[in-house]
Every structure is written in C-alpha cells, then in structure tokens.
Amino acid sequence: MFGLILPSRPVLTPALLQTISPTQFAYTFPSSPHFSHIVIFLLPGHEIPAGACAAVYIQFPGSPEFTLLGAIGMEKQSAIFKVHDRSPNSLPNGSAEIDMDAGLPRGQSLLGDVVVGISLEPIETVSAQLAARKASSESDSTALTIVRRPPSAKVLAQRIIKNAFNFLASFAGGEGGNEVVPLKSFQDWWRKFERRVEMDPGFLEREGDG
Prior knowledge:
The protein is of the alpha+beta class. It is built from 3 helices and 10 strands; from the N terminus they run E-E-E-E-E-E-E-E-E-E-H-H-H. The strands form 3 sheets. It has a 5-stranded antiparallel sheet with strand order 2-3-10-5-6. A 3-stranded antiparallel sheet has the order 1-4-7, with no helix packed on it. It has a two-stranded parallel ribbon with strand order 8-9. It is rod-shaped and about 100 Å long.
C-alpha cells in the first residue's frame, strides 16, 4: 500500500512492508549509512479511506518511542520528511506542514534498525497532534526570547550630551579660564551626529556607546 525511499538506497517495496494490523504498517531498515530525508508515498491503485490519513512515525535505535513526522492522504499522496540530529533532551519541532524535523538524538549509536510506522488515523486526530506540537514549540521559543527594554528618554539625552561633549572638547579654547567652542564646531558635530543616526538608528540604545 505504501512505498518508502531513502536517498542513495534502493526503494523499499511493499514486499518489505510489515502489516501490524489492518490499519498499521511498518518498514524496518538499518540506520547506517546515514540518511537525512525519507520519502513516503501511496502506491498506485490504493486509496486511503475518506476522513482518514496515513500518519507517519519514526523510531530510532535504542529509543522506545515513536515520533510523529506528519501524514499523507488522498490530496497529497507523497511527502518528504527531513530528519536532523538533535540533543537527547530536545523536542522535535511540530508543524502541520509535511517537511519537519524528526529528532535523531545526537551522539546516539547508529547501529541498529530504524522503524517507520504508518498508521491510518482520523485526519482530525493527526491534525490536532501536529497543531499541539507546533503550539508547544512556539511557546518554548517565546519563553527563551530575551526582551530588551529601550533606554529611557533621560538616558538617551545623557548619551547625546556625552557624544557632543566628547566631540567638542577638543575644539574648546579661550582665555581667563573661560572655554569657548566655535559655532562651526557645533554645526560639524550636529551634521556628523545626524549622519550616524541615519546610518545606525539604534546606536544610542546600545549601552556603553558614546
């Protein structure tokens, strides 16, 4: 009913497909040589029941769990799944799209067999699982995002003054203890300051930038 392709390897034909139950099937193949993609497709002359899809799972050597990759159906009868190396504690990125990461544990021995399970399940059930995984992944990403508050108006003003002072100090001159800065020097600073703001609007917001 289903075929499987691993790049650079022979096509796995239905003769190698194990029937676990009327709605569950599996392909087993060596994990070596390394692979980064798998292709699952519905064979010609076969149909998936209305309201159902073929959910695709993968199990790596040494792992008791199957990871849901995605699904194919009558509207999309083939799919490419991308598999990336991941750390042992990381969660795979879930998505309602077909291409996604599967979650091969980093450093795990490649010796052993990989099992790709195909299960006929209601579309709503599989869609809900993928949506929940995507929401969880986005939530984790949001939690790790560092929010940086912009500096206050007072701090910005202080940095502008500091910038002007550093530039104009070298032009100061005068007698009797009175220092005078030529107007032209101030105009030169202002033109330079405007150019820098145009080229790098956020430079004043970076702490320690004078």
